[in-house]
Structures are given as structure tokens and as C-alpha cells.
Amino acid sequence: MSGPGIPWYLAVSAILFSTGVAGVLLRRSPLIVLLSLEIMLNSANLAFVGFSRLHGQMDGQIFALAVMAVAAAEVCVGLGLIVAMARRRLPLDVDVFSELKG
Amino acid sequence: MGNFLTWVVWLVAAAACLGTGLRVVTASNPFASALSLIGNLASLAVLYLLASGEFVAAAQVLVYAGAVMVMFLFVIAYLGGRADAPWAGGTRLIQVSSVIAAVALLAVTLVAVGLEAGDQLSSEADVTRSFGSPAAIGQLFLTDQLLAFEITSIVLLVAAIGGVVLGMRSEAEGDRVPGKDAQ
Amino acid sequence: MIFGAWLCLLAPAAGFLSILLAGTKLTRRQAGLLSTASVFVAFAGAVIAFVDMLGRDTADRSEVTTAWTWLEAGDFKVSLDLLVDPLSIVMMLVVSGIGGLIILYSNGYMKGNDEERRYFAYMAFFVFSMLLLVESANLLLLLVGWGLVGLASYLLIAFDHHRPAAVTAGKKAFLMNAIGDATMALGLFLAIAKTGSVDFGPVFQAASSGALSDTVVTLIALGLLGGALAKSAQIPLHTWLPDAMEGPTPVSALIHAATMVTAGVYLICRAHPIFEAAPTVQHLAALLGLATLLLAGVVALVQWDIKRVIAYSTMSQIGYMFVGAGIGAYGFAMFHLVTHAFFKGLLFLAAGLVIHRLSGEQDMREMGGLRRSMPLTHWTFLVGTLALVAIIPFAGFWSKDAIISSSLAQGGALGWVLYVGCLIGSLLTGLYSFRMYFYVFHGEPSAKVEAAAHGEEAHHGEGDLSMTVPVVVLAIGATFIGLLQIPGVWEPFQKFLEDVVPPLVSPSTGQEWLSSMISLAFATFGSYLAWKAFRAGRELVSAGAIRTLLEHKFWFDELYDAVFCRPAQMLAALLREQVEQPLVQGGLDEVADGTIEAASIAGRAESGLLRTYALAFAVAVSILALVFLVVR
Fold first, then answer.
1. Vertex C430, ends C489 and C420: CA angle to 5°?
2. Is 1.10.287.3510 the CATH classification of the domain at A6-87?
3. pLDDT, average across residues C432-439
4. Which of C348, C431, C607, C629 ranks highest by number of CB atoms within 10 Å?
């Protein structure tokens, strides 16, 4: 294969992943948190595709497609939640929902 | 020459990916975040192409960038000004530890993969032209990975129902007092 | 004989259990009748055994029957054994007979009481325990019976548990008896250690054959004596008996006059080989009996509560029995036990009739002139008094004077001290008994008596048949039972017991009649003095230091309070403040506070913020990955 080898793909994936983690932990708007989650999922997808190319097996790509489908489903539900929150005029702030406290 | 081009394309795509990723996480305007994510998805698609994942790249652009991100943009448009999310990171402790956690994860991943895999990562397999083609994907989906295929469809169905349920208007539509222990 | 013994023991137990288990399904009357019947069945059993025994040769009159082996540890064996021999038969007859009469009396006396069933159950339980005590064939079972009668005594003294005085009196009795139980147990331990057995045979054999060293046998005897002193209310463990009068009158009659308090005398007679092997202790018993005899006699002179007078009189008479047992006149001591059961029980029951008539009044100053309104009670009470004072031909004369003459026969310093003391005791007995009699039945009727005479109670006569019949029966007994021992003429009682408890001293007929006449003179003189004082309307002991001393009962209660109770309370308070509060309570408080603090610290992790939880995930994942790396 020409171009960078698989380790480069994995490195990008790793950096993207930790960026996504930082985003999930540091932002207060649920919307941004969802977007960061997308980042994380995509980084996983990248790793899948890279490994699939490494081993010459297509299963990695299959799984990447599955992850994409799941991500879509999750976004659907997450956005539905956000819209429901907005409709009830709740503040869009993850720190406000602390009913798990104690 | 071909190799050099591949390298250039790869580096540009990778840089774009990482840059947009960072922007998604740090932008205060959610619209900017969403647009950055679209850019991220696009650069990822390029990377997939370079790794012989043609179908995946196409699906990424069509499904992810095309459908999911559009949904996101719809919601941001609906929310209007309420979607604004200034940088508010929580307590100092959480901020610092979050950063540390992320960095730690990164380090561990790199180190782990590097140490463990090492040699195994260097030699890629030889692949035919049909690697990554829709035919090959279809072939696998309907034979070896049939279960994944079916379960995925069920997950999508459930998510669709969930979305409808969440969107339904209920009696408690009025103002609700937010949690009293807002930090 | 064995059948009779088992019937005697188990009938009251069955009665007790039936009342206990039937609960409110039995009416109160039925409970009373059941209890009475069970004890009379026991008496029948004792009579069966007695008749059987009379038909046998003297050598054949002892029988031991084993129910089952309770404890076996190597060579040491303890079984549920019953012993039927002349000594135990005498006690069985007295306990079940007098017990039955008193329970019959209770049917009338306790009528209308809310908790009659409990009372009758306890009475049956008491009779069972006492019979267990006297029928046991080993020291351990005797101790079991000993403890059970103590329990029954406590339960019955504190029967009216709404009255704090009764509850306190019950506790006092129980505690003092517990001291006696403890010394007895210690004696038992020593006996087991040295002889390897608790059965009467081996232990007595070891004691009399000299196999045990002097110290050991003295200690065992002291242990048994401690128990006997507590149970029989002799100095120094005597202060509980006057307080025990807080219980209902039939209880005082049965437990604290006729039977339980005589258990100490029975013990000494039964364990006489041990005491004979430790003469110091035996003579100590006699001297303590003498001291109690005199002390109780003088204190009775200043008592105004009719039951207290009779209680002190009981203490005094048991002192006589201890004197008898202490010098080895076992047969006479037992004989006095029997006659005392009759006339003391009679006195209590008759006093009960008076108290019942006057609706609970027990102060003699509120009585007087009752001989006109209660003739039956008057005559029976007089019979009892005459028996107590030992006027011929009533029962006390024959039994008490037998003991007095034995002390004369003993001779030596001990004998003369006892003899003179007993004679003074006779004088005192005459004094306090007739003082009581005159105050209650002679003189002008008090206002209360007048009211009662015309009141409701009087319409029923002097009491139910269930109350008057036992009193009359006991009166007849008190008159005639003494005639079982006429010195020089016939002495069946002494002979009956001779084989089992051979006496150490046997006064000659001449000695007996001589000392009897002298003591009769003393007693009559005492009665005369009492009559004169009553006629003159003055007290026998004039006010002053002596009277104060007597009224405070020689300050025994105060002494015990100061020496035992106060220090114990102070120690308890001290421990509570210094040890329990800071250490125990404080420790617990610290643990509780610490837990709360730890929880609140840990609770900070439950901030409720989603992000914190997500952070926790991230951190955990990175740590885990690190761990996997290292561990591989």
C-alpha cells in the first residue's frame, strides 16, 4: 500500500478519540456533548477501517457500517431528548439535571 | 510520484480531520461545531478511501454527513438562540481532571498499541480490487454477518420509534422547574 | 412407695402446667380448684408412700429411684434421682398436707382478685419445687429445688406487682437467697472436686469416713450452712423475711412459715454427716440459731403489724430448730418443724381471717375486741398462740421443750449457753405472742372493728368454708400432733427418724421433764407479764434507747445498706460515668459519627452531574488499560 501505513491511521484515531472524550467531559451544552460523541464514534470507525485494510478482511468495514447505523440511531434519540427539553423550556445544561445526586 | 501524492493527500486529510475535531469540541457557537463536524466527516471519508474502504466512505458521506448532520442542523435551527453554549467547563477539578483523563487515554492507547502490536502493524495484506467494494460488503452482510445486519435494522427501528415517542406532545408541556441543585 | 413418691412430685407439676397452658380457658375458680386438687393428690401420694413405708422393716425404708441420667462426664454422673426415706416422707407429708390446706384457704381468701389463675399456678409450682427439694437424692437436684423455691417465693411475694413495696420485697428476698445459693453451689463444687459425686451416699460416706480433709469438709459445710441461713432467714441473712410479708397472707403462711423457710433445717438434718465431720460449723449453726432466736424475739416486742409479729416469731422458732440441728438433736428439730408448720400456718391463716374481715388492715392498734365478733377465729388463734408459747398439752410444748432439754443434755459451755438462751427465748415467746393476742382480740373494739362487724363481710360469717375449714383442721393438728412425742411414754416420731438421722444427744426422760417444766414456767411467766402490761395499757418495752434499737431491728438493714448497697450503687454510678459513657457509649457514638462523616464524604461523588460520571468512566478506562498493559 502506498502512503502512510496503518500505524498512522491508528494514531489519528487515537488523537481524535481523546479529543472527543475531552469534549464530552468539558462542555455543558448537550448538543455539543452529542457532537463530541460523534467524534468518538468516528474515530472508532477509522480504527476499524484501518485494521480491516491491515488484515485484508472486510469484517472491519462491516462493523464500521454497523457503528454508523448505531450512531445514527443514537443521534436520533439524543436530538429527540434535546428537543423535548427545549419544548419544556428546560435549560439546556447537563449540570442542571442532577437528580442522581446523593 | 504516486506515493508522494498519496502522502500529501493523506496528511492534508489527517490535518483537516484533527483540526475540525478540535474545533467541534472548542467552538462556542453550536452551528460552528456542527459545520466542523461535517468537515471532520468529509476528511474521514477521504481517509477511508485511501484505506480501500470505498463503500464505507460513500456511506459516511451519504448517511452521516448527509442525513445525521442535517438532523443536527435542523435541531440547531429549531433551538435558535437557546442552543448557544458558551465555554463553561464546570468546577476547576473537573476541568483539570478531564484534560488529564483525555491525555491519559491518548497516551495509553498509543503506547499500548505501539508496544503490543509493534511489528504486526507494518505489513499490510495484499488486497484485490474488489476489496471494499459494495459487492463485497453485500456479500458479507448477507452471509457471515447476517446477524449484525438484522440487529442493526432492529436498532434503527427502535430508534425511530423512540424518536417519535420523544417528539409526541404530552400534558406536561408547561414550564417545569429545573433541578434545584444546579451547580 | 416409689409410686407414691412420683405421684406426690408430679401432681402439683401437672397442676401448675395445666393452669399455665390453659390460660384464660379456665375460670378463676376452676384454676383454684385444680391447684388445690393437685396438691391434695400429692398428699395422697405421700400418704401411700408413708403407709407402705410403715409396713416395712426399719432397715428397708430407704429407696432411691432414678428417672434418667442427666449428665455423664467420665466418672461423674448426675441423674434425676428421688429418695424416699423417713426424713423425706416427713417433709413430703408436711409440705403437701399443709400446702393443700393453705391452697384450699386461698380459694376463699383470693376470691375476686384479678390474677387468681397466676396465683394458683405459682402456688402449685411452689409445692412442686419444695417436693423436688425434699425428694431429691443428690445435692445437685436439691440445689435445683432450692433455686426453684426461691423463684416461687419471689414470684409470690411480688404477686401484687402494682405495689412497689411488694416488688422491692420480692427482689430483696431473691437477692439474699441468691447469696445462699451461691455459697451452696461453691460447697457443691468442692464436694464434686473432692469426692467426684453429688449423690448423698458417696458424699456423706466420704465426709464421715474421714476421707476428706478437715478444711475441705468445713468449707463444704460452710457452703451448705450459708444456703440454709439464707433460706431459713437466720442471722446474718435474715432481713428479707419481715419484708416478705408484703405477699398475700396464704403465701406467708405456706412459704414463709410452714415450708420453705424450714428447708434449711431439712438440709442440715439431711447432710448431717458433713456437719458432724465439721463440728465447728455445726456448733456455729446452733449459735446463729440462738442469736436469731433472741434477736427476733425482742424485735417482735415492738412490732405493730400483725404479720410482722408472726414473721419474727417464725424466725425465732426456726432459730430453735437450728439449735436442735446444731447440737445433733435432728429428730427433735424435725419434730419442731412439723409442729411449727401446724401452729404457725394456723396463726397466719387466722390472722388472714382478721385481715380479710377488716378489709386489709394489718395494724394491731386498729384492732381489738375481735373475740366477740369473730369467735371461731378467736379460739383457733388462741390455740395457735398456746401452741407457740408451748403451753401443755399443745403441740409446741412437746417439740420445743424437746430441743431445750437436748441442749441441757449437751452440757459443756455450748450446752449451757444454748440452754439459758432457749429459756429466755421461751419467755420472749410468751411475751410477744400474748401481746399480739390481747391487742387483737381483747380490749375495746376499735372503730374499724365496729364498722366491720356490722358491715358486709360479717354477713358471710367469719369467712368462706374454704377458709374456715383449713383453720379448724390446723387448730386440731396444733392441739394434738404434739402428742406424737411424749418423753418416756412413747416416742414414735424420734424412733421413725432414728435410722436415717441418728441423734447425737439424747436427753434422759428425767432431763426432758425437768427442762420442760422450767421452760413452761418461763413461758407462763412471759404470758403473765404480757397480760399485765396490756391491762395497764402500757407497752412492754418503754420508749427510749432500747425501744429505738428494737424498732430499727438492730439496724441490720441500715448496716447492709451502708456496707453492700451504697458501695455497689456508687460503683455502678462510677462505672457508668467513667467507663460506659465515654468508652462504650462514646465508642458507639464515634462509630456512628464516623460512618456519617465517611458517608457524606463519599456522597460528594454522587454529585448528580452526568459529567462527573462520564469522567469516572474515562478515568476508569485509562486505568484499566494501564493495568492490562502491565499485566498483559
1. 70
2. yes
3. 89
4. C348
